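Please review this pair:
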Amino acid sequence: MTAEGCQKMTAMRRAAYAFIAALVLIGMAVCEDAPAAELITIATGSPGGSYQAYGQGLARILARELGQEVTAQSTQGPAQNVLLLERKQATLALIMRGVGLQAWNGSDWTKGTQYRSMRVLFPMYDTAFQFVAAKRLRLNWLEDLAGLHIGAGPRAGTAGIYLPRIFNALDIKTAVRFGAYESMTSQLKSGDVEAIVLASGVPTPALTELIAAEPVDFVQPSADQIALIRKALPEISRSTVPTGTYSSLARDYQTVGLFNFAVAQKDVPDDLVYKIVKTVFDNREELVKAESLAKETVPTNIGRDEVLPLHPGAARYYREIGIPIPVAQTQ
């Protein structure tokens, strides 16, 4: 090759390198102008619990449908989830309505500090209070439990926390005992306690096993008692355990409960929240496969909130599908 040819080849290579470098710079500029979507972190609950199963199923659905990274973080439960949301260490969180109201008002475990960064996205499922007594005692109403020994499960559990408050609101004097539910059901069989109260999604495995081994009656709060409980504890709502949930339940069991909700940090963009809520309901059947309690994750159950404000992005979704929103939820 002649000297002149070499010079031409060198010039062509330089031009090619300059062109490639320009493309790289343009690509970098585009990437800077369109940053990657932020990680969505869902604060769930302890390993093996329903919150974790629900959160993991939710994370899989959102990651696939939104096309961004979503992770389910194990936590100690609703109270810690509220704190993580407040500190912006979580994007979404799963909470119980009672814990949410305590956080909003700065009562109970919050020791006077108000946590108001949460906004409700969608309903999860109900935690129903199920009062059952040994059938041999023939007890029908809550006042029949006066003077008896009642098993409430773990002291820090939902029933353990709320049962003394419920009995106090009704002025019913009982001897409440705490411990693992396995222990409570054994004590009911042996006669060491006359009744037990379980607070969980239904059907409750421990109660299903108990009914298979020991005849029990469902002890029902009256309509007046439900009203008194709700007046004293506004976070509690009416709850129904449907006929057939348990083999011995021949008719609907009317009781009280605490609904669980998914909430988001208030600064999460409205459009993203709208997409999240729509995605959840569009893929509800898949969520039910991850956690059967998600059968209660339906739009109409958003009315079970009544106390915590909705995120504007969620409110937009419910209005579009014609679901009424209580005024209190639009604060």
